[in-house]
Amino acid sequence: MEIPFTSKPRPDTGIYNSKVGIWLFLASEVMLFGALFSAYILLRVGAPEGTWVHGLLNIPIGTFNTAVLITSSVTVVLGWASLQVGNFGRYKFYQAITILCALAFLGIKSYEYREKFLHHEVWLNHKIKVKHGHQEVETDRIIGHLEYEGHHQYFWNTKRLKGTPEEKDKDGKVIKAAVPPVESFKMIPDAFHYTMTPKELAHARKESAGVAHEEIEIKASDVKRLSAFVPSHSTYFAIYFTLTGLHGLHVLGGAIVIFYIWGPGAKMWKTDPQRYMNRVEVSGLFWHFVDLVWIFLFPVIYLL
Amino acid sequence: MQATTHTESHKGAHDAHHHHHEPGFLQKYVFSTDHKIIGIQYGLTALAFLFFGFLLMLCMRWSIAEGANAAQIKDYVIRPIPLVGGLLEKLLGDVAPKGIMSADLYNSFGAMHGTIMVFLAIVPLAFGAFGNYVVPLQIGAPDMAFPRVNMASYQFYFIGGVIMFVSFFIPGGAAQAGWTSYSPLATTIPTHGQAFWLVGMVFLISSSLLGAVNFIATIIQLRAPGMTWMRLPFFVWAQFVTGFLLLLAFPPLEAAGVMQLMDNVFGTSFFLPTGLAVGGRLADVSGGGSPLLWQHLFWFLGHPEVYVLILPGMGVVAEIIANNTRKSLWGYKSLVYSVLAIGFISFIVWAHHMYLTGMGTKISAFFQTTTMIISIPSVIILTCLFISLWGGSIRFNTPMLFALAFLPMFGIGGLTGLPLGFAAADLHLHDTYYVIAHFHYVVAPGTIFALMGGIYYWFPKMTGRFMSEFWGKVHFVGSFIFMNVVFQPMFIQGMAGMIRRMADGGLNYSTFKNPGAVGGLGADVMNMHKIILIGAVCLGLCQIPFIINLFWSIKNGKKATSDNPWGSTTLEWQTPTPPPHGNFDKEPIVVRGPYDYSLPGKDKDFTPQNQA
Amino acid sequence: MSDHSHSTEAHKHSPQEVSKHVKIYIGVFLALLVGTVVTVGLNAVHFDSIKLTVAIALFVAVIKASLVACYFMHLISEKKMIYVILGFTAFFFVGLMFITLSAYADLPANTVTH
Prior knowledge:
The complex is a heterotrimer of chains A (about 300), B (about 600) and C (about 110).
Chain A: H1 17-45, H2 59-84, H3 88-117, E1 119-132, E2 135-148, E3 151-152, H4 158-162, E4 167-168, E5 174-176, E6 184-189, H5 198-208, E7 216-219, E8 223-228, H6 235-262, H7 268-271, H8 273-303
Antiparallel strand pairs in A: 1-2, 1-8, 2-3, 2-6, 4-5, 6-7
Helix pairs in contact in A: 1-6, 1-8, 2-3, 2-8, 3-6, 6-8
Chain B: H1 2-8, H2 13-16, H3 25-30, H4 35-70, H5 85-92, H6 103-139, H7 147-166, H8 185-188, H9 193-221, H10 234-266, E1 277-278, E2 281-282, H11 291-325, H12 332-345, H13 361-389, H14 398-415, H15 418-421, H16 423-429, H17 433-463, H18 469-495, H19 523-556
Antiparallel strand pairs in B: 1-2
Chain C: H1 4-11, H2 15-45, H3 50-72, H4 80-105
Helix pairs in contact in C: 2-3
């Protein structure tokens, strides 16, 4: 048995099966990301004063990553065009760049994630003095790097300060050692805060460039809340990690499919070139869609 | 086009070698890519879940009826669930002490009854099973457009089902926040059932998406030569629209599910408001989220989902009615346009589930209007089906009885929905048993009756044998009576103010406990719980002949003497019985519409679509 | 329907056509890079009006997205069926975004939404 129209288009619709399939799938993806974007808008519009984070992401890196993804998109179409004229070698070359770009994108993204996991905000019970550029201000919210026992720490939160007791199983064997409570830790504060307006923020950044940051000692008893820049920090980081994480999964999935067609699946070019080109085109359509989502994600999450 | 098909068949040598050796059992029945096997896999799994969901409901009905019974016993003693109480205690532990259902367990069963019935039973049965088996046959295709995606779709469904089922046995039990999983309740319940529910839902949604892509692509691409859009059987149209509903309405719920999973696992606050207090203490969350957002995204799926449940049922009924009245469907074009209209409008009515959230008057006026408008195409469909009966020489066989019962039952379900569509009436009826009665009339004696009819109708094509007509009628009569015994009293209870989701059936709000309380639930309303319980048990007993009949008839039923025992016009009956892998001996060429019954001047009272 | 030879012809592209396409692809690629730089550059200017900032950023994004959709995804010369599918999607997408947002806009005064 043979399914018709897997390689040649159906005469009355003018398209082959998998193209219909991929566009239907992309239609559902539009709705998926649409729902997340509408969630973004609602969370942002409804955010209580001073809770919406902006200006903390690394814009140069984000811009570079955008360029990487755009490049991977153009190599996909160029690879497909090479197949159209029967140049398999050039197709192989272009798609190799696509796959490398995908890996680069994911690598850069995970570097950005790591930066955020190392960065903390602390909400204090009372105001203290911190340097913002050259001037001193009083504030009860500080962002910066957290140091404990001489090391930068990842993922700290309010619970961590209280410590956790030893955990034992039924036979009395210790399965989890106790984590002692923290009395105080050090903070290397940033000279700015996301509650500033974009202009003030840019100004504070410029002024503080090259100025040495003074460590401050913070007592655990003074802390109202402590959170790294992880999803639970705020609704901003919640939607940031959800959107970029889901997008990253799409990049990964697309790269795996493109790699399969490029490598192990390339035999088909010999047996059924038309169908092979269709596969390349369809995987390319998915890839462009992933690029398209990023084109909206980048300004919305990094810039606005 | 035939030429195209044939030129293609010399390609893909690795595909062709399938024909040379007989596939093993695993490949033939478990990892099959044949749409008919996948359809049967869907069907059997979905029927098993349907039965399981029904058993959950029986336990809940016992708990509710005990609320009414307890009033007659000193100190309001609740008795253990008969037969299964001990088993529940053994399997689930503390939540069913001495075989008595705790309120937590009731909540779990309630949430899972809804989830299982909607996502694991009815949709897979209506869309997965019937759609898979019948649609490619009816359009004259050799299989689905993407057979391996089809297999993956079933496997995702199966994994989702296993995750849902397993969640009963984890510490704390299954999800308890209702099938709608409203936040913040769903996030603040300190057990892991909700996380399982969400992961299970992600699998079920992915399964539905793959299925929907496949169905739509198949219907667009693989129609046989001559099978133009207006020659498609109505069942195919219904499945086509259903596919679009699943394709475009499910992703927002998937997004919402991912966000709620983030709330539950990573401590985010997508749906948790600022200042949320749990158990009298401020929750350790950032806040700033919007509980209303969950409801919007949930009901954006939730309402089209209602039509996902009902449209395939309408399609089945249309096929059966045309076949057994021996005349063409009345108003085929109106049916098609109505089903398309339903598809569109069903996406803009969702917030009529949310009148009580403090919604503004303008937007609520908008949703009331669209809700009233969507009832028009539904009424057109029902009217067309009713008029189709007019002047027919009706054969009252089992499938036809179910199809006929569908019409008034769906009518009751639909019409009782109108008061719920008006904000003013909904304020009173919201979250009462009236709502339960309303949507169960649509789905239980509505869709399930249609699907039961479909099973009796297509069984001879699947197996080459008929199911027993006598036991089929017993099954029908019993189900018909007891469905109404179960659901009719709920309208009255609801209008009397009986709120849903109460493990004790409202005992604490009744005049039993509070004699003379104004607005308390009276003895008459409370005692209806007992009638409903009896009705539900009898309804269960009536399914026994069906189950035995279904399996017994596979080997021992009356043999179908031809490939087209009902004398039907549509293409699925023009194949060998049961259809082989690849379906048709020869690609059918369609020359006429789907319902050419009793044409004047023909010697037979039916003219198949592929016959001149 | 027997003229399948015609439809296969339509699916193949001549080398001249392809090299024309390649030029377009490169052009679009450059336009996308320029668009990215423009977005980032304008963002550094800091307009006083937040609405203006949002509008400009989204405007550039929409242009970039349409370039990708039209040329990389060939939507500028696609078959009717694809447009129909996307038309449905656009309808439901707008419904989801617009109605949800207007539901929030229409909440009675003093409703706390967060």
